[in-house]
RNA sequence: GCGCUCGUAGCUCAGCCGGAUAGAGCAACUGCCUUCUAAGCAGUCGGUCGCAGGUUCAAGUCCUGCCGAGCGCACCA
C-alpha cells in the first residue's frame, strides 16, 4: 500500500462516516486534500494523519471521538494491521509488512518512470533561467541557476508538465557597445573606458578575436568597434553555450533580444498594451502605467530619444511567450534583481492576464564563496571573478551541480572552496553516489555468485524465483520500503513548490536509510549457504533502491556511478 | 526614507503549503572490518528556532512590531 493509496483510504473512511451520519459534518466541510505523513518516531506507526483534529471543530466533537469513528472504519481496510489513537487525536496506522513489500516489485517494473506523475500535466511552462549578458563568462551566480533551473526543469517534466527551457540573450543596448569598445581598447593597447568591462577575460577574448579575424586591426574607429562587438559576442556566447553543455544544462530555446527588436515584436507589444489602455505619453516618452498593478512607479517603454527601453523588450518578450502558447512564464532572478518582480507582474496585468497564474518569479539569493575564511567578491566588471568554468574545473560537474541544487534557492549559500576541492565526504553527493555504487556492487556479486543471471536486473530477478514481499519484515527493511514509497510524493511536491532541492535532501535520507539497512541485513549468502527466498526478496529491495537513487540523481542531472 | 529577501547546533544547511520530544552532514569525542564497497554503521556532545507580542486544541511554520544582514528603489542594461 502506497502513501497515496492510504491517503485515499483515509479520505474514503471520512466520506463514508459522514454519509453514515457518524460525523455531523457538512459535505462542503470535508477537506479534499487529506494528508498522511511518516511520523518521525516509529512508536507512531508507519503513517499518521491529523485529519481527526482538523475536522473535529466542524463535526462538533472532540478530536479523539472523531478519531474513534475513523479508527473503526480504517481497521477493516485490507493491508492495515493496526490503528491507534494517540496524543490529541492523531491516527497512527501500521501496515502489513507484505503490503509494503510489494512496492519493491512495483518500483522495478516501473523502472525509470517510478516517481513520475501527472500532477502538473495541465501546465505548459516556459522556464527562463540564467539569461546572462553575452559580455562575459558565466559566473557563480549563473552556476546556481544552471544547476537549480535545470533540475527544476527535469522535476517539472517528471510531474507531467510540458516545459520549454529558455535562455534570453541580453544582446541589445549600449552595454554591447561598451563591450565592443572594451575589446577594441584591449586589442589596440589603449586603456579600457571607465564604463567598459574590466574583467581579466577581456584581453584574452580580444586576442582571440584578433586571432580569428586578423583583418580587424586594419579597421578604424566605430567600424572596428562594431566588428569587435559582433565577433566578441559570437565567441562569448559560444563559450557560454559550451560550458553549459559541459555542465549538463540544456536549453530548448536561445532567444535573442536583438531579434525581438528586429522582428517588430517590441513595437507590436507597445501597441497591444496601448490597445488595452495602459500606455500613455508624457514628457516626450511612452510609458506603461504599471502603478495601476502594484508597481512603485510607471515605467518608460520608449525614451525621449526614441530608443526603446529594456523594459519594453521585457514586455514584448512576455507577450511573445504567451503568443507561443505558454500559460505559465517562470523567471529565475538573482536577489539583486528582485525589484523587477512587481513590474513583470504588472506587464502581465496590463496585458489582461492574471499575474498570479501566468507569472512565477523565483528569487535566488546570491552564492558566496569563501577561501581561507575570507569572502571572494564576484564582479563581472572587476577582475578576479569566479566562473562556472572554474567551479567545474575545481570540483567536477557532479559535485558542483549537487552542492548548488541541494539548497533552497532563496537561502543565501556559502560554498567553501576548501571543502569543495577536498573531494571528501563533506560533500553529500558522495554519500548518495556511494549508495548507488554500493548497491551496484551487491548486484554484481549476486550475478557472480550465480544467485541471479546476467542481464537486465528486473528480469534476472524475475527468473531467479518468486517474490514473497512478506519476508521483508525486518525493521530496517520496513524503514527502507517506507523511504522508497515517499519518492513520488517528494518529486510531486518538488515540482508543485518549484523546489528541486527537496529531491536532493530526500536522496540523502534514502542513502542513509539504505546504509543502515545494509549494515543490519546481510543480502547475499555466505560461502555454502543456500539461496533462500529472503535473499531474493532483499535483492529486489536493493535493486528497487538503486532505481530510486538513480532516478533521483537523474532529476538533479548528477551521474549515478556503478563503481567508485 | 520606501520596498523585497534572509536570521534554525561551533560550521554549511533541511524542516514536507500549523501537528506529537526541532533534524542531517561536517567538526569534537567513543566503539564496530577473517563476511556483500568502513566514502559505511552505532553512540556521546551540541539549539531561549534573531527578540517581543498575537491568532490556534497545536507556531520554527501564520499575523504585527522591533533588531540584525544582504539587495533593490533610472527616459541604465
Number of helices: 20
Side by side, the strands of the main sheet go 6-5-4-10-11
Q: Class of the domain at 104-118 and 426-556, according to the CATH hierarchy?
A: Mainly Alpha
Note the main sheet. Answer: 5 strands, parallel
Overall pLDDT score: 90
Shape: globular
Mind telling me the C-alpha Rg?
29 Å
Low-confidence stretches: 378-382
Distance between the termini: 35 Å
What level of helicity do the residues show?
Answer: 40-55%
Tell me the strand percentage band.
5-15%
Number of strands: 14
Q: Classify the fold: give the CATH topology of the domain at 104-118 and 426-556.
A: Isoleucyl-tRNA Synthetase, Domain 1
Oligomer: single chain
Level-2 CATH architecture of the domain at 104-118 and 426-556: Orthogonal Bundle
Which structural class do you get from the secondary structure elements?
alpha/beta
CATH superfamily of the domain at 104-118 and 426-556: Isoleucyl-tRNA Synthetase, Domain 1
